[in-house]
């Protein structure tokens, strides 16, 4: 562990994605427990700034303009790219960080850690050998605990306190309220989060349709479907009856979190919005298949549905010829039964 120092300036690097940032959200408070008086700066990709900027444990945020750099590279504006990169490195160096915590475990994040100028660089041992750019590295634990690797990182720094949390500011809550009122969404609703970036984490569309039939017959509230702009067309296929509201792509990331916080419950696949429900203490049913499920969470009202087949978790190497039996065989009645156990 890094030696104790007076009011250290600490750089926390967890660039993406939503779910990982949610699970890492306990680190700022753990850092301050380990280093009293520390100033914490979170470095995150630009689209995710709103996830962390209101965290009371974060003193300031630096946005990594990854998408802008990629646009410059694709358009072969190499001089402009070089200037953008060097300006970014200068910005990091001007902060005079004492410690950098690399919570991503990739070459790109470890390189940024090294370029930050921090003499003490803490992070994970990785398959990419990115830990060679660090001064201290720990192995990620094999655990079914929610956010276990970040908890281990906190413990390495000397803090036994780890509690993930998300802060929703008043302005975001007000914007969400206006959307709900405009669309005449009832006070009581369940959020559905069917979408994720990887096919092997999807619960089939027909299963969602079956679940919606059950919910409309037996649940008196409304259903709200969340997702990104690219999910809107598929969401429209689910929102085919009264009482179902399609908000995929209609809300910002922060507004989506506020919506989850107001919901009676959430049903979702292994995706960031589902993990956010756990952190926000919204009752949640999380559907896992090809990925490792967490079975211990900071919320007593999170339930995990996981079939534990011999081939699971296969992660990115399915052996079922892309049938994804681990998710196809999760039935809508089972999910509805599980939801009833936690519904507010």
TrEMBL record:
An example of a GO molecular function for this protein is: ADP-heptose-lipopolysaccharide heptosyltransferase activity
Query: Which residue stretches, if any, does this entry annotate as coiled coil?
Result: none
Cleavable signal peptide: none
**Pfam families (UniProt xref):** Glyco_transf_9
For biological process, the GO terms are: lipopolysaccharide core region biosynthetic process
The question of whether Glycosyltransferase is a record keyword is answered with yes
Keyword Cell membrane carried by entry: no
What are the record keywords, sorted? Glycosyltransferase, Transferase
Q: GO cellular component terms?
A: cytosol
InterPro entries listed in its UniProt record: Glyco_trans_9, LPS_LOS_Heptosyltrfase
- Matching SUPFAM superfamilies, A to Z? UDP-Glycosyltransferase/glycogen phosphorylase
> What is the name listed in the Swiss-Prot or TrEMBL entry for this protein?
Glycosyltransferase family 9 protein
Question: Which lineage is the organism of this entry classified under, starting from the top rank?
Answer: Bacteria, Pseudomonadati, Pseudomonadota, Gammaproteobacteria, Alteromonadales
